[in-house]
Prior knowledge:
Chain A is mainly alpha-helical. Chain A contains 3 helices and no strands.
Amino acid sequence: xxxxxxxxxxxxxxxxxxxxxxxxxxxxxxxxxxxxxxxxxxxxxxxxxxxxxxxxxxxxxxxxxxxxxxxxxxxxxxxxxxxxxxxxxxxxxxxxxxxxxx
Amino acid sequence: xxxxxxxxxxxxxxxxxxxxxxxxxxxxxxxxxxxxxxxxxxxxxxxxxxxxxxxxxxxxxxxxxxxxxxxxxxxxxxxxxxxxxxxxxxxxxxxxxxxxxxxxxxxxxxxxxxxxxxxxxxxxxxxxxxxxxxxxxxxxxxxxxxxxxxxxxxxxxxxxxxxxxxxxxxxxxxxxxxxxxxxxxxxxxxxxxxxxxxxxxxxxxxxxxxxxxxxxxxxxxxxxxxxxxxxxxxxxxxxxxxxxxxxxxxxxxxxxxxxxxxxxxxxxxxxxxxxxxxxxxxxxxxxxxxxxxxxxxxxxxxxxxxxxxxxxxxxxxxxxxxxxxxxxxxxxxxxxxxxxxxxxxxxxxxxxxxxxxxxxxxxxxxxxxxxxxxxxxxxxxxxxxxxxxxxxxxxxxxxxxxxxxxxxxxxxxxxxxxxxxxxxxxxxxxxxxxxxxxxxxxxxxxxxxxxxxxxxxxxxxxxxxxxxxxxxxxxxxxxxxxx
Lengths: 102, 483
C-alpha cells in the first residue's frame, strides 16, 4: 500500500477524541453534548478503519459500520429524551436538571 | 458446520428476543393487562429449558468465532434469565399502578437480557460491544419509562449521556487494542501479545480506556456518578434489574476481556483493579451511611458491593472468579427481594424514605422479616448467602498473597453494618404513624419469598453451589491448547 501512513490517521483520531471529551466537559446543552459524544465514537471508528487498512483485515471495517448503526440508534433515544425533557420543563441545560442529588 | 446445528446453540437468545415481540403484541392487543408479563415469564422459562437441556455442557465457537458457547456463558445466561423472570414477576402490580405500557416494558427487559447473554457468550470484541449496546439502549429507555415523572426523565438523560460517553471510551480502547494486536478476537489478541508486548504505551492506553468504560457500567468509583441518580429515579423494578443483571453482565464481559484477551499485561490491570476496588467499596459504604432515602442507600450499597466483586477481578485466580460468580448470584437474589419490599412501600409512601419503614415489623411482619434477612446478607452475617460470598472473595485474596486487600474488605463490611442495621431498627424499634397492615400483591410476595429461599439455600449449602460454579472456566478449554 504505497503512500499509506498510519500516523496521520491516529493523530486525527486522537484529536477528534480529545475534542469530543472537551465538548462533553465544556458544553452544557444535552444536544451539543450528544454531538460531542458522536465525535468520540467517530474517532474510534476512524481508528478502526485505519488499523483495518493497515492489517488488511475486514474486522475493523465491520466494526466501524456497526459503530455508525449503534450511534444512530443512540441518537434516536437521546433526541426523544431531550424532547420529553423540553416539554416537561422547557429547559435544555443539564445544569437545570437536578432534582436527583445527594 | 451445518446451519441448523449452530442456530440450535443460540436458540435461548432467539426465544427471548421472539418472546419480546410476542409480549409487545400482547400489550397492544389488550392494554393494561397482565398478559405481556405472563408471556414474558413463559418465554423466559422456555429459553431456560433449552439452555439447560440442549446447550449446557457444550463448548464450541460458531460463526467464525463471533459466538462462543461454554460453561461460563451458560451459567451467566441462566443467571440473566432468572433475574429477568423475577423482574417480570415483581413488576406486575407496579406496571398497573403506574400506568406503564406493559408490552413495551417487557419487550425492553427481554431485549436487554438478549444483550447481556451475548456479552457473556462471546470472545469477539464486536459481539461483546453489540451486546453491551443492546443492553444499554434498552436500559436508557426503561429508565425513562415513567413519562409523567421528572425524576425518571432526568435519570434517563443522565444515564444516556454518561452511558454514551462510556461507550465511546470503550470503543476507543477496543480500537487501540485492535491496533496493537491486529485482531478483534480475544484469543487471537492473547496469542499476538504472548510473544511480547509491542507498543506497550498504546496497549496500556487501550487497557485504561477499557477499564474506565467498563467501570462506568459496573458503577465503580470514580465512574459511578450516574448510578445513585439512575437507581433512584428509574422505575423501581428497572432499578433492581440494572443493579443486578446489568452489573453482572459488565463483570462477565470484563472477566473475558481481561483474563482471556489481556493476560499479557496482567500486572498492570491488576494494579488498576486493586485501586478501583478499594476506592469503590470505601466510598460506597461511607456515602451510604448518610443517606436518608431507601433507594439512594441501596444505590450506594450497590456501589460498595461492586467494589467487593472487583476484588475478585483484581485477584483474577480461578478461585476468585468462582467467588465472584457466587457473590453476584447471591447479591442478585437479595437485591431483588429487597426491592420487592421497596416496591410495596413505594406504593403507600412515594418518597421512599428510610423513615417510612417505621413500624413495618407490625404492619407487614413477614415482609419485614425477609427484608431483615436480605440486610443481614448484605452485611455478610452467616448463614446467609452474603457471608459465604464475602468469605470466598476473602479467601481468594488471601490465597493470592493480598491479605491486606482482604483486611480492607472486612473493615468495609464493618463500616456497612450501621446503615443496613439501621433499616432493621427502623422497622422494629420505631413506632409508625399507623399500624394499618400493608396488603402485598402476589407478585411482590412471591418475589420476596424466592429471594429469601435463594439467600438461605445459597447460605446453607454453599459448598454444592461453589462446586457447580467452580466447574466453569473463563478461558474456555478449547482455547487453552492454542487456536
